[in-house]
Amino acid sequence: MPMATANPLENLQVEASCSVCLEYLKDPVIIDCGHNFCRACITRWWEDLNRDFPCPVCRKTFRHRTLKPNRQLGNMVEIAKQLQITTKRKARDESLCEKHNEVLNLFCRDDQEAICLVCEISHEHRSHTVVPLDDASLEYKEKLQQCLEPLERQLQYIAHCKSREEKKPVELKRKVESRRQLIVSEFEELHQFLEEEQLVLLRRLEEEEKEILQKLKDNVAQLSEQRLSLNNLIAEIEEKCLQSGIEMLKDIKNTLERCEMMQALELAMVPVELEKNFCSFPRQYFALRKVLRRLMGDLTLDPETAHPNLVLSEDCKSVKFVDQRLRDLPDSPRRFTIYPCVLATEGFTSGRHYWEVEVGEKTHWALGVCNDSVSRKGELTALPETGYWRVRLWNGDKYAATTSPFTPLHLAVKPTRVGVFLDYEAGKLSFYNVTDRSHIFTFTETFTEKLWPLFYPGIRAGRKNAAPLIIRPPTDWE
C-alpha cells in the first residue's frame, strides 16, 4: 500500500524498525548511505568483513566502517512504542462481542476464542470450559514466550549454516585452482599423448564445480527462505505478546500450530562436504591406466638374445641370472655373450610405447633400450654414445641414469616396479617409479634406428639378487 494512504501509526512503526532484526531500533546508528540500523545488528552484519562494507538495504558498499548515533530517531522510536501501547489499550477497552454487544471478558478453551457473559450461557458454549480472559491471556502469553527461545535458537543455527555455505564457494574456487594446476603439471610430464585426457578431466572438473556451486546456491536460497519465515513468525509472536488479551488470542490456535511446525522443520540442505566428496579423481596421472593399456603390447623376452647365464620363464615374461649355465646355447649374432642382458621380441621405429617391470627387492638391475646395431659380443660401454639408454641400480641403493658421465638419481622411495615410456618421434625415453607414482629420469635423444627394450637382471650376490625381473601389465593407478 502506498505510504500516502497507509495508517500513519503503521508508517511510523516501519520507520522506527531495523531492516535486519525487524524489531524497533535499539541504539540506532546511521551509515553513509543514510539507512538506519540497530548498532548491534549492523555490527554483526559486518563482523567478518575487513573491507567493502555493504548496506543490508541498498547494497551500496563503503571502504570504512562508519557508524553515527541517530539520537533523534531514537526518540522517535520511543514515541512509536508509546503510541502503539496506547492504541492497543484503547482497542481493548472497546472490544465488544459481535453477537451480543457485550464486553469480551471470558475465554472459551474448547473453541479457543474470547466470549462475553451471554455467550457463556448460550447453547454454543454451555458445555465448554470457560476461564476469565485475563487468566487465559497470562497462560497463552507464557506459552508464546516458551515458543520464542527454540525458534530463536533455530534462527541462529540457520544464520550460522547460511554463513558457512556462503563461504564455501571461496574455498571451492581455491581447491579448483589447486587441482587444476595439479592436473596441468601431471599431464605436462606425460607428454603430448595425454593432452586429450587432460582436456576431458578439466571439463569434468569445471562441470563438478558448477554442480557444487549450484548445490551451495540452492542451500543458501533455502536457508534464506527459512530464515525469513522464522523472522516473520517471531515478529508476529512478539507483536502478539504486546497485544491485549482479546487481540492476542485471536487466531491463537493457528499461531501455535505454526510454531510447532517450524520447530519440527528439518533443514533439507543438499550435503556438500568439500573435503570428502570434492574432485574424486584418481590420485596420480588420472586416466593413465586406460592410456597405458592402449600403448602397451604383449611384450615378451627374446631367448635368441639372452646371455647364456640368463634363465627365462616359460612365458618369456621374466628373467634371472644363474651362476652356472644350465645348457650350451647355440651362438647367434643377436645373442649377448659378455653383458648379461636380454632384449624383447619386439622393437620400435615409431610411436609411443609403455611397459612396466617388477624389480622387487633386487640389489642390481638395469632397464632401458638399445639401438639395433649395438655390439653384442665382447666388452661394451653401455652409454648413449654407443646406443644404450638405461637407468640402473647397484649396491642396493645407488641409482643412476647411464649418461656420460653417469647422472646420480636420488629416489625418495625405493621402486619395486618401474615404468618405461618411449616416445620415438619426440625423442624421449622416460622412467617412472610406479611404487610412489613419481618421475625418475627422462633421456632426450634423436632416435634414428630400431630400438629394443633391454633388461639386465644383474649378477647374483648370494641370495640378495636372486629374484627375477618380471614384465607386468600396467598398475591400476587409482
Automatic annotation (TrEMBL):
TM stretches of this protein: none
- EC code: 2.3.2.27
- SUPFAM superfamilies hit by this protein: B-box zinc-binding domain, Concanavalin A-like lectins/glucanases, RING/U-box
The record places domain B30.2/SPRY at: 279-474
Q: What is this protein called?
A: E3 ubiquitin-protein ligase TRIM39
Top-level EC class, please? transferase
Biological process (GO) annotations held by this record are: apoptotic process; mitotic G2 DNA damage checkpoint signaling; negative regulation of canonical NF-kappaB signal transduction; negative regulation of proteasomal ubiquitin-dependent protein catabolic process; positive regulation of apoptotic signaling pathway; protein stabilization; regulation of cell cycle G1/S phase transition
Its taxonomic placement starts with:
Eukaryota, Metazoa, Chordata, Craniata, Vertebrata
Involved pathway(s): Protein modification; protein ubiquitination
Name of the gene: TRIM39
Is the Mitochondrion keyword given for this protein?
A: yes
